[in-house]
Amino acid sequence: MSKPEITVLYFAAASTATGLTEESITLPASQYPLSSLGDLLVSLHPDVGLDKILQSSQWSVNAEMVENAGEVTLKGGEEVAIICPVSGG
């Protein structure tokens, strides 16, 4: 059985840091906690400051904002967005 894949959407600072607007990510397990996704993305994009960006960002899964990443399990097929804080005004 193939490993599950998700689509990660990068916006604002996350897009600038990675140079991407979206990316397909293969999950290491069929039940993968959203709370671990940040570490996985940082390991795929080291040394671009993504860890700092993720600390102040929120997650969205299938266009729904996530309040608590620890309560969300990714199973594959999801579209996960990194929503960075908007500065300026």
Features:
five-stranded mixed sheet, alpha+beta, two-stranded antiparallel ribbon, Ubiquitin-like (UB roll), Mopterin_synth/thiamin_S_b, globular, molybdopterin synthase activity, 3 helices
Roughly how much helix do the residues carry, as a percent range? 25-40%
CATH class: Alpha Beta
Measured on Cα atoms, how large is the radius of gyration? 12 Å
Give the distance, in angstroms, between the N- and C-terminal Cα atoms.
Answer: 48 Å
What structural class do helix, strand and pairing data support? Answer: alpha+beta
The name of the CATH architecture is Roll
Report the CATH superfamily.
Beta-grasp domain
Order of helices and strands: EHEEHHEEEE
Question: In CATH terms, what is the fold-level topology?
Answer: Ubiquitin-like (UB roll)
Strand fraction: 25-35%
Brief summary of the model shown:
The chain is an alpha+beta fold and 89 residues long. The protein contains 3 helices and 7 strands. It has a single domain (5-83), classed as Roll (Ubiquitin-like (UB roll)), CATH 3.10.20.30.
Describe this structure in words.
- The chain is an alpha+beta fold and 89 residues long.
- It has one domain (5-83): Beta-grasp domain (Ubiquitin-like (UB roll)), CATH 3.10.20.
- 27% of the residues lie in helices and 29% in strands.
- The strands form two sheets. The chain has a five-stranded mixed sheet. It has a two-stranded antiparallel ribbon with strand order 3-6.
- β4 and β5 form a beta hairpin.
- The mean pLDDT is 95.
